[in-house]
UniProtKB/TrEMBL annotation:
Record GO cellular component, one term: cyclin-dependent protein kinase holoenzyme complex
Residues annotated as transmembrane: none
Keyword Cell membrane assigned: no
InterPro entries given in the database record: Cyclin-like_dom, Cyclin-like_sf, Cyclin-Q_first_cyclin_box, Cyclin-Q_second_cyclin_box, Cyclin/Ssn8, Cyclin_N
Family: Belongs to the cyclin family. Cyclin-like FAM58 subfamily.
CDD domains associated with the record: CYCLIN_CCNM_CCNQ_rpt1, CYCLIN_CCNM_CCNQ_rpt2
Keyword Transit peptide listed: no
SUPFAM superfamilies linked: Cyclin-like
Name of protein: Cyclin-Q
Length: 190
């Protein structure tokens, strides 16, 4: 957030990070270096390029609140070189497969169509969209992005947001299929 990254590059960085540690041992690599390299690589993949100096300074400020930006000394250049080398390692470990399909576009589509189904009053009085987006952002803290398809995650966060506020989709009881199966035919509740 402090780097001004948009949602998709952040999601890509999180996915790269989780995927890298699924392929390797968590104890073998510094997770903070991998995180900085994931952010750097995601910026390239999603065409929101970030300077390594900015990533280093934001990370330094996060780990040492109140500290000054790093001087351009040997420590800075070593850290910069480590990020670049880690990026190359990550690309090799992930077999250069660093482009992902994220749930964001699905969730946007689902929210727009659901807004048309619901009456205006229930949509305006409950922050369903805000909650669904927050749940989607929070889902990247773990490995959900690797275990489930993007469409399924989008439906799940929307379903949970509706459950949180007790909002029912009109005519759901009379319908042949639940509303969420219209979006993803291959999804079932346990």
């Amino acid at each position: 957030v402090k780097l001004g990254m948009q949602s998709i590059p952040i999601a890509t960085a999180c996915t790269i990070y989780h995927k890298f540690f699924c392929e390797t041992n968590l104890d073998a690599y510094d997770p903070y270096l991998v995180a900085m390299s994931s952010i750097y690589l995601a910026g390239k993949v999603e065409e929101q390029h970030l300077r390594t100096r900015d990533i280093i300074n934001v990370s330094n400020r996060y780990f040492s609140p109140g500290s000054e930006p790093l001087e351009l000394d040997s420590r800075f250049w070593e850290l910069r070189d480590s990020i670049v080398q880690c990026e190359l390692l990550m690309l090799r470990v992930l077999r250069f497969q660093v482009s992902f399909q994220h749930p964001h576009k699905y969730l946007l589509h689902y929210l727009l169509s659901l807004k048309n189904w619901l009456n205006r009053y229930s949509w305006q009085r409950t922050p369903i969209a805000v909650t669904a987006w927050a749940l989607l952002r929070d889902s990247y803290h773990g490995g959900l992005c690797l275990r489930f398809r993007a469409q399924h995650i989008a439906v799940a966060v929307l379903f949970l947001a509706l459950q949180v506020y007790g909002v029912e989709v009109p005519a759901e009881a009379e319908a042949e299929k639940p509303w969420w199966q219209i979006y993803t035919m291959d999804t079932e509740l346990p």
